[in-house]
């Protein structure tokens, strides 16, 4: 899935969730002073920011395949080593880092096992590899309401439940297949508040990710029908959306 969209569009759509999730993941990582860290699939820099806060810019590197996201991360962290590239081919030598993390990335890797294996390669022996993926299969992700509404109108319509790591236990299985030893398999929940249904809906129209791509590909009449179906499923405003992600920590 391509994320060649403006960083601002991603921020409006998923950034509301990825930012608090990055807080939770950084707490679980417990990076110690002096550690070197790599943010894989950094996007505009949600997790990167937390790692820089804890370790300093000289101890953190980041990488993402999206040119707009790389540019945004470089603007956000001047002088930081932010590179363009994919998880499956990380451009660092073996054992370059003490930890490597991929927040909301594994399910979009072309080859998740290879990507996690590369993260293990660039981490020193005994170092930490971590990843998060929304529980799309359990319909507890941030966009579950959207996909339920899609299926109300089109039972054969797509969703994200089949993506890698999106069902219970699968992310840990991918870690094991990549040669990593799972030391923690847990879940993390964040809460995002909205003042209105329009505030919730508008980011979907920006074309971000599978949901956005699906929506912008619909004819106008179907798009409006889907909007109405989503609004019917939302609680009265103001309301909050809880989103749960699977989180796995492993050892290289």
TrEMBL record:
GO terms for biological process: methylation. It holds the Pfam family Methyltransf_11. SUPFAM superfamilies: S-adenosyl-L-methionine-dependent methyltransferases (SSF53335). One of its GO terms (molecular function) is S-adenosylmethionine-dependent methyltransferase activity. The keyword Cell membrane does not apply. Signal peptide: none annotated. Residues 38-130 form the Methyltransferase type domain. Keywords: Methyltransferase, Transferase. Belongs to the methyltransferase superfamily. This is Methyltransferase type 11. The lineage of its organism: Bacteria, Bacillati, Actinomycetota, Actinomycetes, Nakamurellales.
């Amino acid at each position: 899935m391509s994320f060649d969209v403006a960083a601002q569009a991603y921020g409006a759509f998923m950034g509301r969730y990825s930012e608090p999730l990055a807080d939770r993941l950084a707490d679980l990582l417990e990076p110690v002073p002096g550690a070197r860290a790599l943010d894989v699939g950094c996007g505009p820099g949600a997790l990167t920011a937390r790692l820089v806060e804890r370790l300093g810019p000289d101890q953190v590197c980041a990488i993402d395949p999206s040119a707009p996201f790389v540019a945004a991360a470089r603007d956000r962290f001047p002088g930081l080593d932010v590179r363009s590239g994919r998880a499956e081919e990380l451009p660092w030598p073996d054992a370059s880092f003490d930890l490597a993390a991929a927040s909301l990335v594994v399910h979009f890797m072309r080859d998740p096992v290879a990507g996690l294996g590369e993260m293990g390669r660039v981490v020193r022996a005994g170092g930490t590899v971590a990843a998060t993926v929304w529980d799309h299969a359990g319909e507890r992700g941030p966009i579950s309401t959207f996909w339920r509404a899609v299926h109300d109108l089109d039972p054969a319509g797509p969703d994200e439940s089949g993506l890698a790591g999106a069902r219970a236990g699968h992310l840990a299985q991918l870690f094991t297949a990549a040669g990593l030893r799972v030391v923690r398999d847990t879940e993390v929940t964040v809460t995002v508040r909205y003042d209105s249904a329009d505030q919730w809906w508008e980011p979907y129209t920006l074309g971000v990710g599978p949901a956005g791509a699906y929506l912008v590909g619909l004819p106008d009449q179907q798009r409006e029908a889907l909007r109405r179906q989503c609004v019917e499923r939302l609680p009265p405003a103001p309301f909050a959306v809880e989103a749960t992600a699977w989180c796995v920590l492993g050892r290289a």
